[in-house]
Specification:
Strand content: under 5%
Number of helices: 8
Structural class: mainly alpha
Radius of gyration: 19 Å
Helix content: 55-70%
CATH superfamily of the largest domain: RNA polymerase sigma factor, region 2, helix turn helix motif
Shape: elongated
Largest sheet: 2 strands, antiparallel
Distance between the termini: 59 Å
Oligomer: single chain
Number of strands: 2
Strand order of the largest sheet: 1-2
CATH topology of the largest domain: Rna Polymerase Sigma Factor, Chain: A
Number of domains: 2
Order of helices and strands: HHHHEEHHHH
């Protein structure tokens, strides 16, 4: 890392060049610091599970570090990195589905269960009665269950839009699609989800 510049003022391209040429670990750590939160958010948007998203984020950064020597800068580093995160999250999602794991909708944080799976702890609203909390939990569980039944490409786009509040343009860039395709996928996902919840 150059002594003339503070790490957080060095552009991504310069940090990448330092990692590529000198295997500069300080430069690599700065890249991770800048992008890890967003990478986690994207993984969490696809997976809906904090532990899984953390695992995917860590695995993705290992892959990114190993592949960084081949990065030529044809796209922004962030776009390239987030695509790796998306692919890792998709792989993890498919693996979870094969194991029979179900998507949990957590409003607050996960609580380890003694016997199996995960439980979710909801944020308590003092204005809501226990009966209303039960109804809300059931509704959230039903939404999560029906989300699982959507086609993967539509569900993924909808989760990135609704859960992570990404723009259509950001989602299109991440998933390698046109903006119109993303809008169409989200519209279809919402329509199908509404139909399933009304049935």
């Amino acid at each position: 890392m150059s002594k003339k510049q503070e790490p957080d003022t060095v552009p991504d391209k310069q940090l990448i060049a330092q990692v590529q040429s000198d295997d500069d670990m300080e430069a690599w750590e700065e890249l991770m610091r800048r992008h890890s939160d967003k990478a986690f958010q994207i993984a969490y948007g696809i997976l809906g599970q904090r532990d899984d998203a953390e695992e995917v984020t860590q695995d993705a950064f290992v892959r990114i570090y190993r592949a960084l020597a081949r990065f030529r800068g044809d796209s922004e580093f962030s776009t390239w990195m987030y695509r790796i995160v998306v692919n890792q999250a998709r792989n993890k999602y498919r693996w979870n589905k094969r194991r029979g794991a179900h998507l949990n909708v957590s409003i607050d944080q996960e609580l380890e269960a003694d016997d199996f799976s995960k439980l979710t702890r909801d944020v308590r609203d003092p204005r809501r009665s226990p009966a209303k909390n039960v109804m809300l939990n059931e509704w959230m569980s039903e939404i999560a269950s029906e989300m699982e039944k959507l086609p993967a490409v539509n569900r993924e786009a909808l989760m990135l839009r609704n859960d992570k509040n990404l723009s259509y343009e950001q989602i299109a860039e991440l998933l390698g699609c046109k903006v119109g395709t993303i809008k169409s996928r989200i519209a279809r996902a919402r329509e199908e989800l509404r139909a399933r919840l009304r049935a």
